[in-house]
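User: Modeling request: complex.
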Amino acid sequence: MYRYDEFDQQFVAQRVAQFRRQVKRRLAGELNEDQFRPLRLMNGLYLQLHAYMLRVNVPYGTLSSRQMRQFAHVARKYDRGFGHFTTRQNIQYNWIKLAEAPDAIADLAAVEVTSIQSSGNCVRNITSDQYAGRAKDELADPRVYCELLRQYSFLHPEFSYLPRKFKIAVTGSPNDRAAVAIHDIGLRMHKNEQGEIGFEVLVGGGLGRTPYIGQTIRKWLAPEHLLSYVEAILRVYNMLGRRDNIHKARIKIIVNQMGIDKYRELVDKEWELTKNGTLKVPDDEIERINAYFAPPAYEKLADRTAELAALRKDDRRFDRWMRGNVVEHKVPGYAIVNVTLKAPGRVPGDVTAETMEAIADLADRYSFGEIRVNHRQNLVLVDVKQSEVHELWQKLVALELATPNLGLLTDIICCPGLDYCALANARSIPIAQDIAHAFTDLDELQRIGHFTINISGCMNACGHHHVGHIGILGVDKRGEEFFQLTLGGSSDQRASLGDRLGPGLPQAEVPRAIRKIVDTYLTMREHDERFIDTYRRVGIEPFKASVYGADAEAHAA
Amino acid sequence: MPQMIIANRLIDGAVVFLDQGETWTPAIGGGVVIDDDAEAQRLLAVAKQLEARCEVIDPLLIQVTVEDGRVRPTEIREAIRAFGPTVRTDLADGGAAPLPGVAPGAGDRREQGATRVRKDTKE
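Assistant: Request completed. Predicted assembly structure:
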């Protein structure tokens, strides 16, 4: 895992001291809110409905048990005993006191975690595949390149005041678990005709008020040019991106307005000037960073397929969990274990301090002390011996962290919504809870199969609603909360934006509508076709008719 | 419609209401309910002075209803601010709101004889 170097450590310490003085001046009345707001946002401190919210980066979703314990400590000492993992692989604390924020940030800095660049118009936390470095299907560990980009973009003076925020995601696998197509820049590792590893570069993806799937600006980019090419993209954006209208300031707007070919032309022109300069990444630098991501000291083990099969045969609950939550590891004898935070009724992504500590203990005992966060708001223990999977499962069951619903209908992405967020129009968490309560039959969930429901409480789309197989968007209709459904969204390697099903529904009708959509799917699916494939085959009409009945046409009109 | 002044306290961000003594209280039941527009504007100006003195952030007038001695903001957003997340009733600060999932509490109940600013009480 990457460690702060002396420079990072010193800088972050100085920043904490600086922020402490700024908070003191604010409390003493020397700064007003307009003067202070940008300073607190530069440190990831927002003001939400009930209190200040602190957003803390988990770079590429990788953290150590030590860091997780410190998250628990911060939750307990400065907050109300819990934190919330987000779709950007960050953790958010909902009740930080301004006067104590510098202490909380200092305690986080002590374990090399920072809230710098978790807000503001800069390059935000660089996200990645939660199975990075362990997945059987990946070409190389994408975190090496995430870290290269993180070091490059951290406090970069030229890109500290972009027209708007900027999100980058990297996948090293053809099976995209990092939703790279909905990022400002998405990087997909793949091999060229010569068999060399490089990146397909996507640009201009994003959700929010104007959603777009990213477009390919370059089919293959050699890793040595990663920084110069990303810089060229950023520089063109910085020069041409709109600053007059916050809703039109993201790179997706400019890319889609001028067209990808024109944007490419401008980037190439810029890139020509720099590609062979100082930003060319030497192999030894890649090697140096690579060393931080060296695999742990695996034992030479054989796969325990027969042993696990016997245990699965004996215990249906274990079998279900294995089928859903455990993923193949690239090293024989090991497994990737997903720790779902989606037990029916709980708030997706919320974890108490006690649970954080319990997960840290499990990581130490079973997984080399490492924990991952995925963008679907679950946690992962990536290096578990197959021989210990059953024992770990029993412990997860006791902690209510073994709901076998990974990738199933109740593995819902959900933003904090109007229960916490100052931007939200409607509550999203109660919708997630209602749906989870309506689909508690685990056999049924497995029969339904792979399914994503993504919920956002406003059009800013932190809950990625546009790319859920079912997307749910909370809206305010004359003071009442309504929910608009979209179908057919996806954030994987075949990313697509959902189509609007019809008029918004009141909260009470949402679970019933989901039920009707699922029933329609089950009657129409061929063989073991996934919902998204059935939807792509049959289109929206049957689903519209099932939810809106005879009114469907009138609604469509 | 009756109004109140809501804000976030600077030091910790907590939701607070302007009370009769022109200070801030976290319990909505302790805040001043204003029936008169002119008085509402006057108190908002007071609240903005308190904002300038770094007590609170973003004070604003919200509409409320008072029924059976219980005060409740009419807008869902403000009700959630007043009573805490509806999904974590254990975290409620200001008492309870009649929102789904919120357990009854006491912070929204007004003391007998609690101040209610009307036109005739205006100084």
